[in-house]
């Protein structure tokens, strides 16, 4: 089954007085359990595509289907629900809520979903252990390194067991060692949980971990390479 | 429910994220609430004092008259003393005290001077519970019976007449045949009043003696009735009116003395205006605090929206943050106001401006009056208007576009 199916997506937006083409007739299918990198130079359209798939932005035309359901025509409220229940997000920076501890950040999505306190606490501690942060659950973001913060963000993204995780430049602010650890964690989670990962990056090392690399330029898909995972 | 808990937790923690800003805003709310309640208590105390003094001068809480007495307060408009059902009603527990009076315009003459006064014939025992005369007696004695031939006169009138305690004066009025009715009386008591106009304008004698002088038998001018609370006389008024029947006029104090009656209504309006004005001054600080708080957290708000929080959740979070700030400020402000008023309950000496106070009917000792309804009013206004003042920044936060918010530099 297709996890993501984009049909003829177009999106333009204004940057100052200039009109920029974000997506130019993009067609894309990603299978469930896929581990895909969207690669493009800055302004190539990878973040725009990721935001459109995640329901954070709406395309000017075209269709987006997630797990067999069309989502591009949903209302803001329904998009919020969809993001809450179906998608895990990892952003480049400012990923965590500063006034919450690591455990509370991991529990955040589950709490909004209405998962009972005991269940989400157990789940959060399990996931924090899985991402190598056992013992740091009561620390606030300011008390953790950048790598640890990204791990908390990953833990939050997968804690509610979404079918799809969208990561936008997740290693951009990390040193090479932390970036490798994070990518190994993604691979492990993809393998163990069958979660579909779509990662926007222009980092060649990150692409090395992917089983499929989609290259974009000026809002168009210019390459789609299937490969063996590292 | 899950959202509600996280909204409260986020609101509470965000509130204390910038301690200094929150504490400054909190101080402003506390001072504002304190000022609202404390000043209201002072104003209420002043008006209460004026009304209480006004009621104790003569009106009581409810009065029964001849229907024409208020237009023509003379011997022509007298009524029969209470009996039957009315007497039974006057002896009910709702009635704290009552007294009959004869009240006519008269002239009082000493050997030196002559003045126009209101001559009031009273039943001494009954009058003690109602009006100020017995309490404010400064020299001499009070009347001993309704047939006592002595007079109680105000100090200022004594001075004007250049007479004194034990001296004889002549009272002159009209009898029912429009003939002069006059008689000599001895001044047996001198009273001081908080209000100079009463010291000059009223002379009190035994009711029986005055009825004799006027030749009106046992007819009276009015029945003054005192209930338990001057603010709540409607029940008493209705009960007395039903028993007194249609041939007499029964009026509550606020209709007898419309100046005092309107004073209460004006005061209620003034309290609301005062509280709203203080709040408006506060609201600028409150809105500024929230706008800054939202502005500093644009990316966070974008993140929460991206993760699936609804705009309504964000709106609620900012509003809860504002309400928490207001509730804490109100709690401390209420406490501070109570702590400021409690030590002053024995009165504040404002004799330095005593003449000015007296000019509009207030005494020179001010007793702050803290009413629950005023405290509730201040709290409700602050919460309700605070809620509306917070809507704008909260609404703006909830409308953020998650993508733009997350990438905002």
Describe what you observe in this structure.
The complex is a heterodimer of chains A (230) and B (409). By secondary structure, chain A is an alpha/beta fold. Chain A contains seven helices and ten strands. In chain A, the strands form two sheets. Chain A has a six-stranded mixed beta sheet, with helices on both faces. Chain A has a four-stranded antiparallel beta sheet with strand order 2-1-4-5, with helices on one face. In chain A, β4 and β5 form a beta hairpin. In chain A, α3 runs parallel beside α5, α4 packs across α5 and α5 packs parallel to α6. The two termini of chain A are 24 Å apart. Chain B is α+β, with helices and mostly antiparallel strands. In chain B, the strands form two sheets. Chain B has a six-stranded mixed beta barrel with strand order 2-3-8-5-7-6. A two-stranded antiparallel ribbon of chain B has the order 11-12. In chain B, α1 crosses α12.
Key terms:
heterodimer, A: 230 residues, alpha/beta, six-stranded mixed beta sheet, 7 helices, 10 strands, B: alpha+beta, two-stranded antiparallel ribbon, elongated
Model regions low in confidence, pLDDT < 50 over at least 5 residues of chain A? none
- What is the chain-wise order of helices and strands of chain B? HHEHEEHEEHEEHEHEHEHHHHEHEHH
> How much helix, percentage-wise, in residues of chain A?
25-40%
Structural class based on helices, strands and sheet pairing of chain A: alpha/beta
Report mean pLDDT of chain B, rounded to a whole number.
Answer: 86
Rounded to the nearest angstrom, the radius of gyration of chain A is: 17 Å
Biggest interface between protein chains, with counts per chain? A-B, 28 and 25 residues
Total strand count of chain A, please? 10
Round the mean pLDDT of chain A to the nearest integer and report it.
89
SS element count, helices of chain B: 15
**Helix/strand order of chain A, N-terminal first:** EEEHEEHEHHHEHEHEE
Q: Helix share of residues of chain B? A: 40-55%
Spatial arrangement of strands, main beta sheet of chain B: 2-3-8-5-7-6
How many helices of chain A? The count is 7
Q: Walk across the major sheet of chain A and give the strand order.
A: 6-7-8-3-9-10
Structural class based on helices, strands and sheet pairing of chain B: alpha+beta
Kindly report how far apart the N and C termini of chain A lie: 24 Å
* Shape label of chain B: elongated
